[in-house]
Amino acid sequence: MRAEHTQVVEGRSNLPRLPNYQIIRQLDEGGMGAVFLAQRKGSAELCVIKLIRDEYNDNATVAQRFLRESHVASEVQHPSVARVVDAGRFEDRMYLAMEYIAGCDFEALMHKLMGNPVRALRRMVPPALTLTIAQDVLRGLDHLHGLTDSEGKHLGIVHRDLTPRNVMLTFDGRAKIIDFGLARTDVSQWQTNPGMSIGTPRYMAPEQVLGERADGRADVYSLAVWLYEALSGSFFIPFLEDRLETMRMVVTHEPEPLSRLNPNLPEALTPVLQSAMAKVADDRPPSAEAFRQALLAAAPDYANTPPEQLGAFVAEHFSDRKQSCELEIERARHRFSDDEPPVEATNVAPAGLAAMDEPLQARPSVLSAEDLTLPTATAPSGLVASPLPTLAPPAPPTAAGVGSRGSRRGRWSWRLGSSPRCSRSGPSRPRSC
Questions:
Q1: Active-site entry in 142, 161, 179, 215
Q2: SS3 state of residue 168
Q3: Whole-number Cα distances in Å, 404 to 126, 352, 380, 407
């Protein structure tokens, strides 16, 4: 936002100003704009504001993409999908407000456990936890793919960037899909230019890489890739700096079977994942729900982690972040009683597929001030992060799905001081505190 539209909040300056909101601090920044932690005036609830860059406000294509996120997300009411609370335009700047999610993304959890420079100390997310998260995400994905408009017409929503960084894990044990900045619907006026691919290359489906039309099976493929990585402790394809080479490998590379990389898991998981990662969309499960049911049938004892155990596991490994989130929520409560009367903005992001100049009605918060207290997770989760599996004779799978001892050279190849997220470009994502 322009320099004159700034305010000081909690000792910070040069923050953008929006009516109805108090901008607290910046969380992230991407190709389309920046993401801020904010609080709606007159409310104790925190939210995340995505604000488009000044230089893009006159770019019709970028503006349409930003508004598309508002369109798509405003249709969604599901516990496994981040909730939109408001969208609008203020002084020629477009913004989107989404629910505040106290937790971490799945990529951060994997990096926390697998990123240790000492290989012997690297750990995997417990497979039982990973598969439970996948069940939640697939439920949300199936809801997205099945959305219809007011006349019952299928919207054909495709997320197109369902990476582990776009799956948030909350401290109360929920998994939520975030970031609709690349979402597409069949009725969208904005279309990707011929031959143009959008998304995070290593998780893109081959049809996306080739610039072909993608449907919900592309999202199934993306989820299957990071599920394969989390369960095997190995990258689906080597981490490469060269984007074009990465895209070439997406189309041509055939990964090792899961059963070879982690023989401690049920063998029935291997063909299920291979099917979901098929190069041709017609060879994959026909829907997110079909993939979910196939995973459940292949490993029924690995996908039933209670939410309280998931939340406690996340809190154990991100205790500092949890404390930071609790502090932000407490500060929001203190600001609640001191809010100024709200200033009206011009809302521009319509609910559903209404005309662009119709306002999006901000849905009232379903949270009270008491609901904003994070759950206490002082007791251990009962889940143990296990060492990378070996290629030794397979051990029988345990009920918790914990891998065997040891590690194998050349497996998970996180680089010191870096992670795959460093090469990410594109629209910014709403992050946790």
A1: 161
A2: strand
A3: 11, 49, 21, 9
pLDDT-derived band at 38, boundaries 50, 70, 90? very high
Residue-wise pLDDT for 212-221, tens only, equals: 999 999 999 9
Phi, psi dihedrals of residue 129, rounded to the nearest 5°: -70, -45
Q: What is the DSSP string of 241-299?
A: S-HHHHHHHHHH--PPPHHHH-TTS-TTHHHHHHHHT-SSGGGS-SSHHHHHHHHHHH-
Amino acid occupying residue 27? L
Q: In this structure, which amino acid lies at residue 254?
A: E
**DSSP-derived pairing of the beta strands 93-99 and 46-52:** antiparallel
Residue 187 has a CB neighbour count (10 Å cut-off) of 12
Tell me, what's the pLDDT at 321? 93
In the chain, what are the domains? Answer: 7-101+319-360 (3.30.200.20), 103-316+382-423 (1.10.510.10)
Tokens found for residue 164? 């582990």
**Residue 101 CB coordination number (10 Å):** 24
Query: 13 exposed, middle or buried (CB, 10 Å; 0-12, 13-18, 19+)?
Result: exposed
Contacts of 281 (CB under 8 A, 6+ apart): 205, 207, 214, 215, 217, 218, 221
Catalytic residue list contains 320: no
Distances (CA, A) of 413 to 119, 247, 348, 372, 421: 10, 19, 45, 38, 13
Instruction: Give the CA distances from residue 378 to residues 136, 171, 424, in Å, rounded to whole numbers and listed in that order.
Output: 24, 12, 34
At 154 the three-state DSSP class reads strand
The identity of residue 222, as a single letter, is: S
Sheet strands (E) in 357-407: 386-387
Digit-coded pLDDT (tens) for 129-158: 999 999 999 999 999 999 887 788 888 888
DSSP result, 41-92: TT-S-EEEEEEE-GGGTT-HHHHHHHHHHHHHHHT---TTBPPEEEEEEETT
Nearest partner of 268 among 293, 305, 233, judged by Cα = 293
| Structure-block tokens of residue 186 | 């069949």
Sole residue written with tokens 């070439």: 248
- Look up residue 109 and give its amino acid: L
* Whether the Cβ atoms of residue 133 and residue 126 lie closer than 8 Å to each other: no
What are residue 195's phi and psi, to 5 degrees? 80, 0
Structure tokens at 308: 């309280």
Residue 81 structure tokens: 């999908």
What's the CA gap between 180 and 161, in Å, rounded?
Answer: 8
